[in-house]
Amino acid sequence: MHAASREALNKAAEHLDNTIQDGNVVATAAQTGIELFEVVDTLDDDRTLRIAVSDPSVEAEQRTGIVERLYGGKIAEPTLSVLKEVARQQWSTTREFRDGLVELGRRSLLRGAEAQGQLEQVEEELFQLSRLLDREGKLTQLLSDRTAESSAKRGLLANVLYGKVTMFTEALSLQVIGRPDKNPIDDIAGIAEQAAQLRNRSVAHVVAAEELNEGQQASLAEKLGQIYGRDMSIHTEVDASLLGGVVVRVGDEIIDGSTRNHIERLRAALA
């Protein structure tokens, strides 16, 4: 996002956080998130409307007035308040206005998970789902098919998730399908990172030769926290081809402590 849009998103996110605090936070946050995604669906289908509510050359009062006329009485008051705040802000592009709404919808659902005491669980479930989609190429291909109806693809994923994850994980995952800004794998992994950020943590992607237990993950998180100077959230997956050890990625930095890497380096030195 451009600087103006980032500022707009930050202000809207603060407004969202304050708005959903009134009443039942879990229910309000869930409803607000779902309704914001419904608004995005409407805007995706109507370019003229999308421009009307985000055009920086139009006065903010006019943009919020359009929102009030279109959505007043049709969505819950907290959702309407957030939507009017988004329209009030100055966005660099119409696309970034739309992307901001998606981010706010996700943030609202994650705040609901937080209020329910499930934010860490949702983060882990989202990451594991991204790994499942990475392994199951046929499933991911079906979910990424732009010629298929979004409702059919969401139904397919819902069947995969039914009874296995929290309602927040399911809602966050289903909203990705039909609007893959990147692809389902990256998009879902990105929401997991957003959940970590709400927990004031950075993400360390860890690939290990065998599954790490809770104690090993906690120890690794502590060591990485000392290295990077911030709390870390550990996302792990298993790759037996490493033979031993782990490969850690934090941002663009990779620490390869695998046995496979040691062997390859030894071979290179002896060549």
From TrEMBL:
<keyword id="KW-0066">ATP synthesis</keyword>
<protein>
    <recommendedName>
        <fullName>ATP synthase subunit delta</fullName>
    </recommendedName>
</protein>
<keyword id="KW-0139">CF(1)</keyword>
<comment type="similarity">
    <text>Belongs to the ATPase delta chain family.</text>
</comment>
<dbReference type="InterPro" id="IPR000711">
    <property type="entry name" value="ATPase_OSCP/dsu"/>
</dbReference>
<dbReference type="GO" id="GO:0005886">
    <property type="term" value="C:plasma membrane"/>
</dbReference>
<dbReference type="Pfam" id="PF00213">
    <property type="entry name" value="OSCP"/>
</dbReference>
<comment type="function">
    <text>This protein is part of the stalk that links CF(0) to CF(1). It either transmits conformational changes from CF(0) to CF(1) or is implicated in proton conduction.</text>
</comment>
<keyword id="KW-0472">Membrane</keyword>
<dbReference type="GO" id="GO:0016787">
    <property type="term" value="F:hydrolase activity"/>
</dbReference>
<dbReference type="InterPro" id="IPR020781">
    <property type="entry name" value="ATPase_OSCP/d_CS"/>
</dbReference>
<keyword id="KW-0406">Ion transport</keyword>
<comment type="function">
    <text>F(1)F(0) ATP synthase produces ATP from ADP in the presence of a proton or sodium gradient. F-type ATPases consist of two structural domains, F(1) containing the extramembraneous catalytic core and F(0) containing the membrane proton channel, linked together by a central stalk and a peripheral stalk. During catalysis, ATP synthesis in the catalytic domain of F(1) is coupled via a rotary mechanism of the central stalk subunits to proton translocation.</text>
</comment>
<keyword id="KW-0813">Transport</keyword>
<dbReference type="GO" id="GO:0045259">
    <property type="term" value="C:proton-transporting ATP synthase complex"/>
</dbReference>
<keyword id="KW-1003">Cell membrane</keyword>
<keyword id="KW-0375">Hydrogen ion transport</keyword>
<dbReference type="GO" id="GO:0046933">
    <property type="term" value="F:proton-transporting ATP synthase activity, rotational mechanism"/>
</dbReference>
<keyword id="KW-0378">Hydrolase</keyword>
